[in-house]
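Predict the 3D structure for this chain.
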Amino acid sequence: MESNSNKESSIKDILSPSPKFWGIRTEQWIKVFFFGNAWMSILILFLIAVFLFREGASFFSLRNGSHQLYRRAGLEFVEEFKLTQEHFTSIYRYLNEVRTNQINILREKGMSFQEAQEKCVEIEDYAYSFYDLSVRLGELTSELSDFVTTFRDQFLSNENLRDYQQTLVEAGKVEEAEAVQIDPVDFELIRTLLIEQREVYNETTTALVEDISSFRKTFPELPSGETQTIHSRFIQETDAFIASIPEHAKRLQEWDPDKPIGWSSSFTSFLFGRNWVTNSFWQDWYGFLPLLTGSLLVSAIALTIAIPVGVFAAIYVNQVAPSREQKIVKPCIEFISAVPSVVLGFFGIAVLSELLKTISGWPGLDWLPFFPITERLNAFTAGCLLALMAIPTIFTLAEDALDMVPRAHIEASYSMGATRLQTIIHIVLPSALSGIISAILLGFGRVIGETMVVLLCAGNRIIIPDISEGLGVMVEPVHTMTGIIAQEMGEVERGSIHYRALFVLGMFLFVISLTINGIAQRIVKRVKTTNL
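Done. Predicted structure below.
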């Protein structure tokens, strides 16, 4: 009788409602707690998105104004002079490289450095004489640069004075605001003076072309005996320079300081811009393309290493390794994720980069297209370290996905006579494929969002990787979206165009992540539908 009464009391305890706190049952409090956490996560995500778009949206209007000033102040006009001068200077640098190479060749033949220099006096004098041909062009470019930047700086100073004046008015200091002197910029004077320089450009470049044509006929003999080959290259370089002059002259002729710059131009110039130049005395440029390609290159290298290692390690540990080995291997792999990224970055700088550079110099490996490595810090070094960071994520989640495959499916496969390898390929992997894809995508998220490693080890050179180099593109220094944000955010003035540009990078990074996750969900859904 006593046992029956105990059973009845336990049943009553189970069926009876839970205690109440402030009139609300315990299970309802639990429900509110977890439901509130879910909505809090959604709210935080929404606020992050709003913050990014609020801070970054005004970038394009600021950029449009900056481009309009670049045109109205005449910097766009003088840019054609600068490009012409820079092209000529690149030919001069080529002649200096020829001289340096000649000295190195003579030293390899046993000459002392002083003797080799004496042998190369002719090519050295020839290079200096060639540079002297552009003295007039250089002086003209320098004078015009000083002229237009003075007007540009005056306009920016006036904008600051107007802001200061407005601040005084808002503070009720009207008399002080009226005392602020603002001298307007005479853009019409800029137009008139610069248009006169079109003819000066034509006269200067015409004389320069004539001097080059006669000058290259006196190319000196080289000590190495490669005169014909190098002279032909020199002629090609100067021909390309001469051919570029009409295009510059045409753009000078078409220059109109009052021509408006559309909003679409501000967006496309950012999205497809090839330069990221900040704090320049001439003009700042904010191009997204080199940072995007740098991020994708580093991520591709990392995932190329991390995906096979992480997935195959998960398959081995879950399906092949004995329990004792599992207890050793699994914690060791997962422990890597506990290593701080800054420690991995220091390891990359001090150990990995030096090791890779040393190995690339071994004679037996010189057949590889990108060996020896000339740049110690590059995309490959950063990619290797990011792969090390992504492997634990991919391994852990893939192993969990494999562990969720019903044991009955595996035993049924064995009962039909399938081998372990056949079971893994035809039963286990298809069943766990959606989980493995999720693991890879989360690994990609870890890689694309990592900052410290790429900031320390990627080389931080803002260029678009040269795909024509083939596999050699992997050892080029690059910069990434996360790296540039971390490097420059602490130095920019709040509210400036540079500040807004960094938030636009954050916006694009946010959109890229959402897009990739959306594509991943479609893939996972399709895989599940196919399996069913």
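Residues 135-170 form the longest helix (36 residues).
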